[in-house]
């Protein structure tokens, strides 16, 4: 039997050995353990960068994505908390020392990528913008603020068209919630064709969405349960291994939790449609990395499954895995460490008359496309 530790590493490396799907369908990406020496992007005519929260999982993924996509920069600052200051990282063959995040960190910084939590973003995001930096923030701090674009580059790039690099004016741009990004990457191409009236989403969210400590606890609990021991429950209040439960976000007075309401509110803002009906149920499942979602769509005009499949095959950032004959559809393991969002189980909703409804199943790496990759793609739109 594969040990939990080996399984953990296997997930983080993309799980290629367990996949029967040809991974050449996905864009190749280096492992998150990469020393970031794949390509050199240092250029004098390029923007200066800062990565806030560089020591965290998403911060490290920022570096991986920047290198993987040969993002041009003339300088890069590694910023984190006081306790992380002094750590050294080698990025594209150059050594950098992590600096403490302060109000003076953003002088001469053109683009600041933030992934250090909402409270840090609320404090330092406006400071950076006032210094002339364009802030791409991965937290929920500014997502619903009027005047702050909430952007998925493949979906609504026009929302940030007014923000220009080098204009001397700083700005805030928000990265949507990971579940929203993964959902709308697949739903939007269909929405453009037939207009979605109502969307019902059920999510199956991995441990990585709750951070490295949750992943470590899942690994530990797996060993403990298999050895007949009582599982350690520090991150979550209940056993996670071999179990699933409602997402751990706080439950609101309306009975929805905050994660579910993010899907509702963010979809309306990104699609610029306050009348779109969205409901969600978000579940935490014992998977190391990458989220899965079941999405039911009701359309204003007919859209059959064959046309939907063709639309999704042509959609940027989407790969279709929809092999009914071999019962092969998207899995979290196959999309871990991959850029593309995978979609399958594309079928007519038999509960609706005509071709006015579809069911689809979507999987995406929430650290990559659900966080770091989407943020870097936003930064690319500024170039």
From TrEMBL:
GO molecular function: aspartate-semialdehyde dehydrogenase activity; NAD binding; NADP binding; protein dimerization activity
InterPro entries, per database record: Asp_semialdehyde_DH, Asp_semialdehyde_DH_beta, NAD(P)-bd_dom_sf, Semialdehyde_DH_NAD-bd, Semialdhyde_DH_dimer_dom
EC number: 1.2.1.11
Coiled-coil regions, chain positions: none
Transmembrane segments: none
Keyword Mitochondrion among UniProt keywords: no
Active-site residue numbers: 178 (acyl-thioester intermediate), 291 (proton acceptor)
Annotated SMART domains: Semialdhyde_dh
Swiss-Prot/TrEMBL keywords: Amino-acid biosynthesis, Diaminopimelate biosynthesis, Lysine biosynthesis, Methionine biosynthesis, NADP, Oxidoreductase, Threonine biosynthesis
UniProt key word Protein biosynthesis: no
Swiss-Prot/TrEMBL catalytic activity: L-aspartate 4-semialdehyde + phosphate + NADP(+) = 4-phospho-L-aspartate + NADPH + H(+)
Pathway membership, UniProt: Amino-acid biosynthesis; L-threonine biosynthesis; L-threonine from L-aspartate: step 2/5; Amino-acid biosynthesis; L-methionine biosynthesis via de novo pathway; L-homoserine from L-aspartate: step 2/3
EC class of the enzyme, as a word: oxidoreductase
Domain Semialdehyde dehydrogenase NAD-binding: 48-163
GO biological process, one term: diaminopimelate biosynthetic process
Subunit-level organization: Homodimer.
Family of this protein: Belongs to the aspartate-semialdehyde dehydrogenase family.
HAMAP family reported in the protein's UniProt record: ASADH
PANTHER family attached to this UniProt entry: ASPARTATE-SEMIALDEHYDE DEHYDROGENASE (PTHR46278:SF2), DEHYDROGENASE, PUTATIVE-RELATED (PTHR46278)
Name under which the protein is recorded: aspartate-semialdehyde dehydrogenase
Source organism of this protein record: Lactuca sativa (Garden lettuce)
């Amino acid at each position: 039997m594969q040990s939990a530790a080996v399984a953990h590493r296997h997930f983080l490396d993309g799980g290629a050995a367990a996949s029967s799907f040809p991974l050449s369908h996905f864009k190749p990406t280096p492992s998150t353990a990469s020393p970031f020496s794949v390509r050199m992007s240092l250029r004098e005519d390029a923007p200066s960068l800062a990565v806030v929260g560089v020591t965290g999982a998403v911060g490290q993924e920022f570096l991986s994505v920047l290198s993987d996509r040969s993002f041009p920069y003339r300088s890069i600052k590694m910023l984190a908390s006081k306790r992380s200051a002094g750590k050294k990282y080698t990025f594209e063959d150059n050594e950098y020392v992590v600096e403490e995040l302060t109000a003076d960190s953003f002088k001469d910084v053109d683009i600041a990528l933030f992934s250090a939590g909402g409270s840090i973003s609320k404090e330092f995001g406006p400071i950076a913008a006032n210094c002339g930096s364009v802030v791409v923030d991965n937290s929920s701090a500014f997502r619903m603020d009027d005047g702050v674009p909430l952007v998925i580059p493949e979906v609504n790039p026009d929302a940030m068209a007014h923000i220009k690099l080098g204009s001397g004016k700083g700005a805030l741009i928000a990265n949507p919630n990971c579940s929203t990004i993964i959902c709308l990457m697949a739903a939007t191409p269909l929405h453009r064709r037939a207009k979605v009236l109502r969307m019902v989403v059920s999510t199956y969210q991995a441990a990585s969405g709750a951070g490295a400590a949750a992943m470590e606890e899942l690994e530990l609990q797996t060993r403990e349960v298999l050895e007949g021991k009582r599982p350690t429950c520090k991150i979550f209040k209940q056993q996670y291994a071999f179990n699933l439960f409602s997402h751990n976000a706080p439950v609101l007075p309306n009975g929805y939790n905050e994660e579910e309401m993010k899907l509702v509110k963010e979809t309306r803002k990104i699609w610029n449609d306050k009348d779109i009906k969205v409901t969600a149920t978000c579940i935490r499942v014992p998977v190391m990395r990458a989220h899965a979602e079941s999405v039911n769509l009701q359309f204003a005009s007919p859209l059959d499954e064959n046309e939907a499949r063709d639309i999704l095959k042509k959609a940027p950032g989407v790969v279709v895995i929809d092999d009914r004959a071999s019962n092969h559809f998207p899995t979290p393991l196959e999309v871990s460490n991959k850029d593309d969002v995978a979609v399958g189980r594309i079928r007519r909703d038999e509960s609706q008359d005509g071709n006015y409804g579809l069911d689809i199943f979507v999987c995406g790496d929430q650290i990559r496309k659900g966080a770091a990759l989407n943020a870097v793609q936003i930064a690319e739109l500024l170039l």
